[in-house]
Design brief:
With 46 residues, the chain is of the alpha+beta class. It has one domain. Helices cover 26% and strands 9% of the residues. The two termini are 25 Å apart. This is Energy transducer TonB.
């Protein structure tokens, strides 16, 4: 986690969502290419 929302419930929800994602590495030809990506997770509360 890069940064906390400062709300445990939101942090836990974000982690649970990300655990369900499937990673597909970037490739250059057939060779996986190392990289870092930051994906913001935005919450909308009713």
């Amino acid at each position: 986690m890069q940064r906390s929302s400062n709300h445990d419930t939101l942090d836990e929800s974000a982690l649970e969502a990300v655990k369900q994602w499937r990673f597909v590495p970037a490739k250059r030809g057939d060779t996986p290419e190392p990289c870092w990506v930051t994906v913001p997770i935005v919450f909308e509360l009713d």
